[in-house]
Amino acid sequence: MLLDPTQVPCQTHSNYPSPFLPTVAGRTKQKLGDAAGIKNFGVNLVCLAPGSCSALRHWHTRQDEFIYVLAGELVLTTNAGSQTLTAGMAAGFPAGEQDGHHLCNQSQADTTYLEIGDRTPNDQVDYPDDDLVAHWVQERWQFTHKDGTFYHAPQA
Length: 156
Description:
five-stranded antiparallel β-sheet; mainly beta; four-stranded antiparallel β-sheet; Jelly Rolls
């Protein structure tokens, strides 16, 4: 299916509980894969404003992730530390590897990248730096503290 990305709506909201929303303020996503009718994996065109991050540092138990930087400069932080990624660079994050990662825009200009991930069911996401766990339940993320108690839903 032919797709014009300029016609795909930009989403600025996050499913994170409210205490974690400031980390991703300034992040916009266009769900290109959904717009193209793709069912087995997701493809998002993501723009990070200066000072914004892709997510909290995290890793998935069952889903693979891949990113490809299209424009600008990002700082990738993993268990090994931080490194700068520029246009044309890519990184992959295999499911089950307990290597928390996220991308932050520490530059003075917007940064754009493709984010690709599979949709394996029964995934869980661990956030090693935060008291947060996400569980994929009934086609949506449910967030709990690490002790299993639920967070309240984010404010829309």
